[in-house]
Design a protein that fits this description.
Blueprint: E1 2-3, E2 9-15, H1 17-34, E3 43-48, H2 52-60, E4 67-75, E5 82-86, E6 96-104, H3 108-118, E7 124-132, E8 145-149, E9 154-156, E10 172-175, H4 178-183, H5 187-193
Parallel strand pairs: 3-4, 3-6, 6-7, 7-8
Antiparallel strand pairs: 1-2, 2-10, 4-5, 9-10
Helix pairs in contact: 1-2
The chain binds guanosine-5'-monophosphate.
């Protein structure tokens, strides 16, 4: 439980650091096993920036030969309209691709990504997401591997941010009062790291 000075609940731990470690370890081993027959290394595609913590831990749990590249995308304002800010440096034609996502919510972003990558003629295309908010899905989208299914709550930590903050929290926190956080974006900082401001 994370409370503000007035004792109001701001957030709570949804997935502990220990649970993340354990689940990501299992997931990494499972994915590595499913790629172990390939003649060429799979290419992991990480979507910046939220997936970086997950990516780093997942890769370490995959004891197979693999390659890595990054993409950065942003929403255009209207849902489903996505713009590529940074494209891949790798030619993905004929490659086995694994998109590494932090969270799938409405599915619009992943749907766009999968369509875009499929047009580049990869040998195969799969997705792993750490978190899945399945109840919020607007477009059906394939997700081959997932870490945790979570309820419809806003989460931060382990790479996920609120206005650029809280990525470095080692656990996943569910924000209880998003309006309170929007009003005072530092309220969780005070609780997590002490009064630094
Ligand atoms: P979708 O296109 O599936 O609706 O949204 C995917 C993106 O929305 C994620 O990659 C992430 O950037 C953002 N997002 C969705 N839900 C959350 C959440 O609970 N917390 C944070 N920090 N970002 C979220």
């Amino acid at each position: 439980m994370i409370e503000d000075d007035a004792g109001r609940l701001v957030g709570r731990t949804l997935v502990s650091a220990a649970s993340l470690r354990e689940r990501v370890g299992v997931l990494g081993a499972q994915i590595a096993e499913s790629y172990s027959d390939l003649t060429q290394p799979p290419l992991l595609i990480s979507v910046l920036k939220g997936s970086t913590f997950f990516l780093a831990d997942l890769m370490r749990a995959m004891s197979i030969d693999l390659n890595l590249d990054f993409m950065s995308i942003s929403s255009y304002g209207s849902p489903g309209i996505v713009r590529i800010l940074k494209d891949l440096e790798t030619d993905v034609s004929g490659r086995d691709l694994l998109i590494v996502e932090d969270i799938v919510d409405t599915g619009l972003t992943l749907n766009y990504l999968r369509k875009t990558l499929r047009q580049r003629d990869p040998a195969s295309l799969r997705t792993v997401t750490l978190l899945d908010k399945a109840a919020r899905r607007i477009v059906p989208v394939e997700v081959e591997y997932k870490g945790f299914e979570i309820p419809d709550v806003f989460v931060v930590g382990y790479g996920l941010d609120f206005q650029g903050r809280y990525r470095n929290c080692p656990a996943i926190l569910a924000v209880r009062d998003i309006a309170r956080l929007a009003n005072d974006p530092l309220v969780l900082v005070d609780q997590l790291y002490g009064k630094a401001r």
